[in-house]
Structure formats: C-alpha cells, structure tokens
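ugh ok fine here u go
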Amino acid sequence: LSPGDRVTIKVPVSATTPQNVNDIATVSSSSEDPDLSNNQDEDGLTVVASADLQLTKTDAPDPVVAGTNLTYTLTARNNGPSSAAGVVVEDFLPSGVSIVSVSTPDGACVAGVPGSALQPTTCNLGTLAPLAQEVVTIVVQVLPQTVGSLQNSARVSSSTADPDNSNDLATSTTTVASQ
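structure:
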C-alpha cells in the first residue's frame, strides 16, 4: 500500500443485530525502523442496519358520495439498503367513516377506531427486503351524515433504524359529496 491508499471492508449486517468490527493494522518495511512501538494501531466500530421506509397513500373515489364506500390504498416500501424488520403501518382513520375491511397480502391487520388517535388501524407487515413493498387496503363506508372533507393520515415504522423519516408519513384529503 502507498500513503493515502484505502482498504474497503464489506460487513454483513442483519436487520436486528449490530455487527462489531475490530480492525488491527500493522505496517512494516524493509528499511530499518528505530521505533517499532508505533507500527500497529487498532480501532473498532459498530455497524447497524439502516432501511429507508417510505409510505404512499391513495384514495378512491375522490370525491366520494356520503353513504358509499371509499378505498384507501397504502404502499409501504423499503428503499434499503438493509432489510427492515418489524414493519408496521398505522392508519388514523377520520371520524365520519365506518370500517368495512382491512387487508394486506402478507401481514396481519387489526381494525382501529375511526377518529381515535389512540386506536389506529394497524397492520404488521413483518420484514421487508430492500426495494420490496407491501400494500394495505382499507375500505370504509362514509357515513350518510358526513359532509365537507375527510383527512386521513398514516405512518410506517420499523425496528430497523430509518435515516430519513420525512417519507414515513402519508396523508390524503377526500372531498365528500352529499347524496
């Protein structure tokens, strides 16, 4: 190696277990070295998994007629670079609706209480590999007396560190037309 050269080490990391890396570097030369005490150094670091989760949401139809069904489609995506463990989507349904169904192909969902910040509709999606995505579909009936608009917010989270939380929230506003 020449001065300024770098060595790259790839470290496999799981989504849940940090990896400790301890490195010892030794330098030697064919020239005589009067001080051998400074020819070795060591350093360590901990490498943790990191997964950038992203949540998008659509609503259909918009506008929706009071007394009819409205479908929210939420897509949770892992932009990587690591797998995201324990992925959970929470949807804070607005008051003015009743839940018809909640589903996802590869997870388990529990219907919450519309209008409650403490009891959101929750879907446990398990582990999402890098660049994988999972869709959650929530069908609600807009109550006949509902007027104006419905604002629905949701978030995605994981037990894996997420370096960019700015894309973990999604909101949609639906106009309600009277019958």
